[in-house]
Fold each of these.
Amino acid sequence: MTSSKKVEKPQGAFIKKGRLYVKAVFTGFRRGKRNQHENTALLKLDGVNNRRETNFYLGKRCAYVYKAKNKTLVPGQKRLNRVRIMWGKVTRAHGKSGGVRAKFNRNLPPKALGRRIRVMLYPSRI
Amino acid sequence: MSTPSAKTATSGGKATTKTTTTTVVKTTTTTQQTLAGTRGAGSKVQKPRTTAAGKKVINSHANRELNNNGLMRFSRGRMFHRRALYRINKWKGDQAKLQGDKTKKTAGSIKKRRSPALKKKPVGGDRNGKERFVRSKRLPRYYPTEERPKKFSVKRKKFSSHPRRFRSTLTPGSVVILVAGKHAGKRAVVVKHLSSGLLLVTGPHKLNGVPLRRVNQIYVIGTSTKIDLSAAKLDNLDDKFFKRVRPAKKNAEKDIFDSKKEKSQLSDERRQAQRTTDAVVLNAIKANADSRLLRKYLKSRFQLWNGVLPHKLRF
């Protein structure tokens, strides 16, 4: 009961969808000092600062959203879109400070380093 | 219960001074005492289903299944001893013999007549001996290399009959946040738990456009807000009701060039179900103390914004 947007709109009016994902940043691949394993990505979630807090996000689906030159069909949309998504999921915590490991269906491209990743709220366990 | 005639015929121990009418005393103890010598061949003992106190009688000598996985607690050999079949089978045989009842199959005591294994057959040719002994039943010409592989016990449950579990926060009547799909961000009311493990959810449609819809539990966040739907009776709404109806296949000739997709029409049944369910839910909301607040709550959308962290939120 927190939203201040409680203006009574006429029925059928389009209420804009808000953000339903948690912001995260792709900080790098799982690695030792000299070896890197690209199959596992490391994510830093917004506002998650210790290992205990990462519990909520385990198992949640994550999406790397990017744009490409050619337009393609996106499921659920009728028009061709430049937006593309790489899907993955949060697998476990990484370290003590709220970092998290994620595995994507295909490894993330290195140009995604430092870029936004969306961690969705599903599959929900609460 | 054993027939009165059988009782009087063989109860030598009891004094049968009353010959004309025999009153059958139907106490449980006496019937069991007289059973040892009084049963006619083929009559079954009716053990009492309930004790005098009214409790169900469980035969402690019976076998039972372990955890529904097809394994039994006692093996065949053990059961033989537990049920004292070594005694019973012999007794049955003796009984059958007493009665001279050869048509009754008893456990192993009456042997069947076997046809002789070998029989004589005439053989032609003058130097072959006139006859041969030949097996009356031929041996099989095929021996499989392994025994027939054991099939899984039929008692194994199919997936469709496995128990489905529901999160404790998703009871019927709870308000829930839809987190994915077309109606993501909307708040809806759980109407029912379906047998397939899905939740049946409704807006109500008037408030936020969420129809009567099935939703998987993992795409839903349960909140602590509850509406009292205990009065509702919604038996006809089940998975079958909501199952997608695929259009029947047309002739192959027509289909290739007909690229029109038929729009699925909302059936009247569904509209009716929506109306009736929503009426119940809306009444329940009205009856609630915070009805105005609840209605606004259901109309509003869930969002995250700066500083709002779902792992810190209390839903």
Amino acid sequence: MATLTVSRAPLGGFDFGNCKRNAVLERETNTAGCSLPSARKTGTTICGIVFKDGVVLGADTRATEGMVVADKNCSKIHYISPNIYCCGAGTAADTEMTTQIISSNLELHSLSTGRLPRVATANRMLKQMLFRYQGYIGAALVLGGVDCNGPHLYSIYPHGSTDKLPYVTMGSGSLAAMAVFEDRYKPDLEEEEAKRLVRDAIAAGIFNDLGSGSNIDLCVITKGKVDYIRPHDEANKKGIRTGDYKYKAGTTGVLSKVVTRLDLELVNEAVLTMDTS
Amino acid sequence: MNTLDVRSQLKDSVPVAGFGPHGSYGLQDSLRTGFTSIKNELIPSHSLELSEKNFQVNQDKMNMSTLRNIQGIHAPLKLKMELKAATQIQRLPFLPSSHLALDTLRGSDETIGFDDILNDPNQSEVMGEPHMMVEYKLVQRLRWRDTPFPISMQMLISCPQMFTLHTTCRE
């Protein structure tokens, strides 16, 4: 293979070499009338709430690719550290990779400091990374956890802005879920009440938004304990068929039976051994 | 924080294009890069391209100026000196170096980013042309604008004390 004449060592990270080619290809396909395949999104409802002892995070489980459901049971609540979890909306690959990178960085950081990581650290790392890429990484996140300062909940937008609030919703079903929260949220809820509220909020998103569906996942984080309930509730069960088009054996009566033998002559018989080495 | 606009980023930063169209034997590579045009090579193809290329440089500038304002001139001076010494510990230009000292000084041995996951230089499928890269390095280092190009290897061998090219092994 011929070597490239480079004067500088190759750097890691994103390579923008194909951008022009992609732009040309997109223009060509648009003039021809067809369209390029779109990235898989998690048209989603995710939400979080702070209750008396901790944080409850909730998410639906549908991943869409344009107008088609790509994954009926995907997991949108990602692990960041033993006491911090993060729900992701937006482009599925972006949320996965971002949360994995931040999880690794936070683990290294906590090994270096020798302490349990704080939610504010994860928030700061995420917002700095997302701002660096100016919104091209389409990851809208709900970050929640319990650390030495108590329970915290943040929402992080793809361009890098964050909000620290007692209850947050993100994704295409966020308005439906926020309506439920605004109606029924009270500070210092009990755990069961909080779980019920989050379940109802996600259900509102599932039933009123086409981009969200299937099951409801919950993650309850308290000091020293994490309850990852997957699935908490199957809101959209696949229906059971009531009828069947197959005929049972014996439906058609047999009047007469004629058997004709086909005499076949064996011409050649060969055995080929399989190479199992 | 990227508050510089495109033109000022173009002015005082690492250049985007290499030696013209990239392809075998220096000819245009229509399959990979499309039709050539000078505009395409000068202006970046993506709005993030320049800011990503200069990200580390800009971060360092920002950190050093903050340090200078808070702690005085000696702190950034000493750090810069150590960084410069650490960047010189590497193998020949076309071989991959581990940059261990540089990573430790920068603190990037304790962080993972996209530059460790995507396009890892240690797993690059293409290699730089050894002679070209070593000559480029020498010209950069000596800054002899009027030297006939290329410098022959005879010169390198005959007067080694003039050419201080560090070829220490990977640490």
